[in-house]
Each structure stands twice: as C-alpha cells, then as structure tokens.
Design goal:
Length: 93
C-alpha cells in the first residue's frame, strides 16, 4: 500500500491488541495520548493514500517532532498554518 514498515507494524500490533489503543500504548511503552497521535497520523496517511494525495513533508516533519516531544501540538499547528498561509500568499502573487 505504500506505507512505511513502522506503520504496518503499528497496524499489526493494533489488530493483535484487539483494537485497544490502551493495549497498543502499553505494548509500545508509551502513553495513551502518544499512541492516539500515532494512530491519528496513520489514519491520515491512509486517507491520503486512498485519495491519491501526496504527503506534505512539512506536516510529516512536524508530526515527528511532536511525537518525539520536541514540539508542542499547538506549536506544530501554528507552524503548519503559517506555512500554508505563506504558500497561498505566494500563489496569489
């Protein structure tokens, strides 16, 4: 499907945990909010693959930084929104 090995492993473990995010978090040794974020990110990747939409490398980088605790979610959203606004402004000119 074009998913990285780590995403396929996450899907496999989620199935083995009977769909339990709590169990998935425990098996990865991370908190529920961390695993929830990883699953949400995986869902978005799947939606993009199905729609044939290319992944935004900036969004992927920001998600990685948030996942590693190097950036807050609100900080990542602010950077993403700023980059999108700048792209739109550039297109208009």
């Amino acid at each position: 499907m074009g998913l990285p090995r780590e995403d396929l492993d996450l899907i496999t473990e989620l199935v083995l945990q009977s769909g339990s995010l709590k169990g998935l978090g425990e098996s990865y040794g991370v908190s529920y909010p961390t695993i929830r974020g990883r699953v949400d990110r995986l869902i978005e990747r799947l939606r993009q693959l199905i729609a044939g939409t290319p992944q935004d490398p900036l969004v992927e980088l920001l998600a990685d930084l948030v996942e590693r605790g190097e950036l807050t979610i609100s900080g990542a959203r602010a950077l993403r929104d700023l980059a999108r606004a700048e792209r739109e402004r550039t297109r208009e000119n």
